[in-house]
C-alpha cells in the first residue's frame, strides 16, 4: 500500500542485506517512523511492545527474528532458543507459532553453516506468501461488498463496520478485513467504513483511520459502543473483522469487543464476516472459548492515553483515578454460531468444520 504516494510493506530487509526494517506502529498516527531490527532481542521486543502487531505481521517478524538469531549463532541450541524466546512474546496469535514451527522444520535439517542464508530466504518467503494470500482474501471479500452494493439505492454507499486494525499494517501488505474494502474501493464501488476506536490501544482510531485516510477511503471513527446503535438504525450493511486465531470449528478470537459487535449484528440481521489467512487457523483446537489463551496486557493501556496536543507535543495522561485497579484483556472469542462466513484466500465458507475443510480438504486427515 502507499503512504503519500510511496509504496511500503510493513517489514522488509534493509539495504545492508541482513538487518530488518519495520514501521514502528507505536508512533502512529502522529508520526511515521521506521525502526531497525538487528538481533533476536530487538525482534522479540518489537513483537512484545507492539511496534509490530496483527497476527500475520507477528508471524513474519518472528521469521526474521530467527534469521537474525542464526546470523549470530547458527547452532541447534541457538535455533531452539530463538524459537522459545519469540514464542513467549504474544500467546494469542497462532501465526506466531505457525511461523516458528515452519522455520524450525526448514532449518533444523540443514548444516549450521547453511542456516543463516536459508533463514533469510524462508523469512522472505513467509512475507511474500502473506501478500499473495491477503490479496486473494481481498478479491473474495470484495464480492460480498459488491453484492451489498446491488441492494443499495443508486448513489448510496455500502456501509461496512470493522473493529481494531486488520489492514495492511497488521499484515505484510493489503491486510485481511480491510483488503476487501481496498479492492472494492479500487473497483469504484461507493462505500463508507465505520471505524471502531478499539480501546484500550485505539488501533481503530489510530491505525485503521490512518490507513483509510491515506488511501482516500471514506470513513468515520466511532466509539466502541456505538456499533449496536448503528445496526439498529440500518446504518451498517455488513461487518468485516479480522482474527488472531480461528478454531477448526469456526470460532474466532479477535481484539476485545469483537464478540459484542457479533452479538449486535446477530440481533439486527447484519451479516458478520471474518477475514483470515489460512495460517491463522488452529486445526488442533475445537472450542475457542475454553481453549484459546487470552492475553492480559499492562493495565496502563487502560488507565493512560497518549495523544498529540494542540501545539504538537506527544503527551501521555492518566484518565482513571489514582488507586483504581484496571484489567486489560486483549482479546475475546466470538462463537462460530454468530459468524456469517469466513473469508479466506481460497474463498468464503460457513464458520464450521465442514465449511473450512471444504476449502482446505488436505486437512481432513489431521483435522
TrEMBL record:
It holds the Pfam family IF-2B. The record marks 164 as: Transition state stabilizer. The keyword Amino-acid biosynthesis applies. It catalyses: 5-(methylsulfanyl)-alpha-D-ribose 1-phosphate = 5-(methylsulfanyl)-D-ribulose 1-phosphate. InterPro entries: IF-2B-related, IF-M1Pi, IF_2B-like_C, Initiation_fac_2B_a/b/d, M1Pi_N, NagB/RpiA_transferase-like. Keywords: Amino-acid biosynthesis, Isomerase, Methionine biosynthesis. Its EC number is 5.3.1.23. Pathway: Amino-acid biosynthesis; L-methionine biosynthesis via salvage pathway; L-methionine from S-methyl-5-thio-alpha-D-ribose 1-phosphate: step 1/6. The active site is at residue 244. It comes from the Bacteria. One of its GO terms (molecular function) is S-methyl-5-thioribose-1-phosphate isomerase activity. Substrate binds at residues 53-55, 90, 203, 254-255. PANTHER family: METHYLTHIORIBOSE-1-PHOSPHATE ISOMERASE. Belongs to the EIF-2B alpha/beta/delta subunits family. MtnA subfamily. Catalyzes the interconversion of methylthioribose-1-phosphate (MTR-1-P) into methylthioribulose-1-phosphate (MTRu-1-P). This is Methylthioribose-1-phosphate isomerase. It comes from Azospirillum rugosum.
